[in-house]
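[job 0412] stage=complex_fold ligand=DTB status=START
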Amino acid sequence: MSVTSVSQWSPENSSAAGDSAAFELGAVRHDWTVAQVNKLFAMPFNDLLFEAQRVHRQHFNPNAVQVSTLLSIKTGACPEDCKYCPQSGHYNTGLEKEKLLEIEKVVAAAERAKAAGSGRFCMGAAWRNPREKDMPYVVEMVRRVKALGLETCMTLGMLEEKQAADLAEAGLDYYNHNLDTSPEYYDQIITTRTYSDRLDTLAHVRDAGMKVCSGGIVGMGESANDRSGLLKQLANLPHHPESVPINMLVAVKGTPLEDQAPLEPFEFVRTIAVARIMMPKSYVRLSAGRESMNEQMQAMCFFAGANSLFYGEKLLTTANPDANTDMALFGKLGIQPEHLAVQQAQPELAAVLASQGGQEQFYNAAG
Ligand code: SAM
Ligand code: DTB
Ligand code: SF4
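[job 0412] stage=complex_fold status=DONE, emitting structure tokens
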């Protein structure tokens, strides 16, 4: 590809083969081709990051990151066969399976997350889909967590229209349901539900009026074309998901992907940057895999346009950096949690955060 300067970059002056449709970097579009996405990936690293940061600044405060806390409300023994997942009942990962958590335990965990500075509470269940008898419990969980003043998110597997409507009615702000990978690679990873099942659930969530959180996993042995194909699918949805989690595979012992070689770190950063450019107004979420990323790599991801993350020492079943570690990193980078950036006067919370290792710059911004 012949990219001489960033401002001149366009598919036309690119030598890469493919279509010749002109496009402006940073426009909200739903007609991406894989060839165009590949061209973004092929940009020189500095040009790509510069463009991603430029697009990012058109819509977001570059020094604010949205933070969500995850809780597994029902762990293990899932009937699905997702090859990456420690919770699938098809593999022996040594995970202790649990029943649906009691509502009071969920509320107590949400209270702790709020006190630690989180803005959104995301409840995940190892289900193919919620059963009818589960619905009253999860609906009540949404109501109670919402009443704490937190944003709410759930990820419970496939949803019928009515289930989506009931969750929306209860006050669920976001529903997470990932496409996971490209349609072409999908069958290598999951056989118990189809790509179009996933698209149907996303449509039900959208139709019910909830915000969509949908992304995927990289580092599962997919090709570069598959990574482009995943981002193309997400960006060509009728509306871009408001939140796009980019998970780096956590290769868990006992799963079929346990020996998968890690993705090259720059390729991960590029994936973030391309997602940012393709979905300019969406939150791009640094998700699973942060435990294996150093501070410099995470900082590069923020520069590439990542502006949300999971906060707290556990994802669903695997480890995540603890809150102190993240607050220390935020302090070093002058980043503040987004909800605190808009709630300037919260001295109690600022005190809690101060005790967790943030730095002077961070407290000034929050308080
Ligand atoms: N069972 C529901 C479902 O599959 O939609 C909700 C929970 S599921 C664990 C949520 C997402 O976590 C998956 O779609 C996948 O993208 C991600 N995930 C699960 N295991 C992972 C792993 N080992 N590494 C990276 N991401 C993973
Ligand atoms: C998402 O895309 N990543 C989160 C959240 N949505 C639910 C889950 C990551 C799970 C990683 C493996 C585990 O902890 O079990
Ligand atoms: Fe089950 Fe979700 Fe894990 Fe797939 S990703 S095995 S559906 S918990």
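The beta strands are 64-74, 120-125, 151-155, 174-176, 211-213, 216-218, 243-248, 283-286, 306-310, 336-337.
[job 0412] exit 0
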